[in-house]
Structure formats: structure tokens, C-alpha cells
Design a protein that fits this description.
There is one protein chain. By secondary structure, the chain is an alpha/beta fold. The chain is built from 8 helices and 11 strands. The strands form 3 sheets. Strands 8-7-6-9-10-11 form a 6-stranded parallel β-sheet, sandwiched between helices. The two termini are 18 Å apart.
């Protein structure tokens, strides 16, 4: 569902792009007029559509006698794909495709978890749990937002090392008692759970101070329940929220992310470990 490429053909009514344009594909194309979109919440558009939903002729894509499903409405591993006009956003010529691709989901989801949902402000303390592509992007978002203490947790040493390179001030394995030493006795201002498991959500909640904020950006399971007591919800006055797609309005946020990259603030080069041919 993450991809970038060149427009090969456009429908007669399309005005935002033309053949030859370089674009990023977004898997959440907003309608622009539903309840959520008109309030700026384009990432949870109520009318998210795929090309097959809009064009009856495209509804039954086939390869020979085999019906083909366009994965997540994008099919970004295909050589060509069909998407709605609002699923593509133009990008500048100086942005390599391998960087542009991860700007389709992982990077805006993680950076957005810190800046949009987490509302990081200068001087705050931030805990990031899980340092995959989304968690590493959240670390960078926290740094860009001005956090002075950023603690990253991940069981893989290589990810912890990369988190330090990308802006974490400390990095530990989960359960390391040193992880909370920077905010001992108080707790973090913001905790970002990039795992989405009941145990990590709960531990992130416990690590955040009274009056602090917890953002869950990891995609968890529907039957994985998290327990909080009514008393602690009242007494600790913490804020718990989820974030879908990093609460990112891609038309607004993609140019900003590209500006961060150009300024050297967003290390997309360290987010890509290598490339392989499509074959």
C-alpha cells in the first residue's frame, strides 16, 4: 500500500495530475465532503473509495481467467495500477521514488503520531514503544517537534541503535529499568505506542505522567482488550487516543514532510536499508 510512480494515463475529468507527473499514492483518498473531511479529518473519510468502486468497468480486474484484487485499493507491487484521482499527490522531481514510497504511509503515520495526534511541543519528554518504520518516524517527529528527551524501546539492538541516530536521546530493550530514569518520579509527557498490543498500550499508559498523553498508532487486533480502572481514568487525568494514518491530511502534510527532508530534519535515507528489483 506504499508506492510512488509516474502517471501513465488519466481520465478526461482529472485535473490534479497529467501523464508524466510523478506522484505518491495514498491508500486513504478523501472524498472532501463527508462529515469528517469537512472538519479536516480526511484520514478517516467516510467515503473512502477504490477505482473499482467508482468505475463499473474496473470492478472486475482480471489476469486471463483469474480475478485480481487490488490490495488495499492500491496494488503498489504491480507494474501498473488504477486508482482514483484523489489517491495520487504530485511530488517534486528531486525526491527519489524509494523515499517517496515510504511517504505514502509509514513516515506520515509515525511523524503524524508525534506532531498531529501527540501534539509534541518544545521541551517535552517522549516515550516511543516499538522502533519499526512507524516508530522510527515517530522518533523523528518528536525530535522535529522539539522534545528534549526521547526514549525509544525495542527488543532489537539494531533498531535501538538506529533510533539513537534518528533523534532518540536514549534507547533500551523493553523492561530495562533504566528506561524511565530520565523522568523518574514524574513520567513522560507523551507516550507513543507503535506496537498496538494490549501489554504495550498498558505499559505506555503506566509510563506517562498524570495529565500526560498516550497515542496508540500500532495496528492492534480487534479481540485484544486493554483494561483500565474507572478510578485511574478519573484520578490520573491522562489522555488516551488512537491515530489512524498519523491523523495526516496528506495534501497538507506531504509537502511539509518533503520540506523536512530537504532541510535535513527527516532522514529518509536512513529509513531505506536497500532496494530490490520488482522481479
Amino acid at each position: 500500500h506504499e508506492g510512488a510512480g509516474e502517471v501513465v494515463e488519466a481520465g478526461a475529468a482529472v485535473t490534479n495530475v497529467a501523464p508524466g507527473d510523478r506522484v505518491v499514492i495514498t491508500w486513504v483518498p478523501p472524498c472532501g465532503h463527508c462529515y469528517h473531511c469537512v472538519r479536516g479529518e480526511t484520514y478517516i473519510c467516510a467515503n473512502r473509495k477504490r477505482a473499482a468502486d467508482l468505475d463499473p468497468d474496473a470492478a472486475d480486474l482480471r489476469h486471463g481467467d483469474t480475478s485480481v484484487q487490488a490490495a488495499m485499493g492500491t496494488a503498489t507491487f504491480a507494474e501498473e495500477t488504477i486508482v482514483p484521482w484523489n489517491a495520487v499527490i504530485p511530488i517534486p522531481d528531486d525526491l527519489p521514488y524509494e523515499y517517496a514510497a515510504i511517504l505514502g504511509c509509514a513516515v506520515p503515520t509515525g511523524v503524524g503520531a508525534a506532531l498531529n495526534a501527540g501534539r509534541v511541543s518544545p521541551g517535552e519528554t517522549v516515550l516511543v514503544v516499538g522502533c519499526g518504520a512507524v516508530g522510527l518516524s515517530a522518533v523523528q517527529g518528536a525530535r522535529i517537534g522539539g522534545a528534549t528527551t526521547i526514549v525509544a524501546l525495542d527488543p532489537q539492538a539494531s533498531r535501538s541503535e538506529l533510533a539513537l541516530e534518528l533523534g532518540a536521546t536514549e534507547a533500551y530493550a523493553p523492561g530495562d529499568p533504566k528506561a524511565g530514569s530520565a523522568v523518574a518520579g514524574v513520567g513522560f509527557d507523551l507516550g507513543i505506542d507503535a506496537v498496538g498490543h494490549s501489554t504495550t498500550i498498558r505499559s505506555t499508559w503506566d509510563a506517562v505522567r498524570r495529565g500526560g498523553r498516550v497515542v496508540v498508532v500500532g495496528a492492534g487486533k480487534a479481540d485484544d482488550l486493554v483494561t483500565f480502572s474507572a478510578s485511574e481514568l478519573f484520578h490520573d487525568e491522562k489522555e488516551l487516543r488512537g491515530t489512524f494514518y498519523g491523523s495526516s491530511n496528506m495534501v497538507r502534510d506531504l509537502p511539509q514532510l518533503i520540506a523536512f527532508w530537504r532541510a535535513g530534519l527527516l532522514r529518509l535515507d536512513r529509513m531505506t536499508s536497500g532496494t530490490v528489483p520488482l522481479e
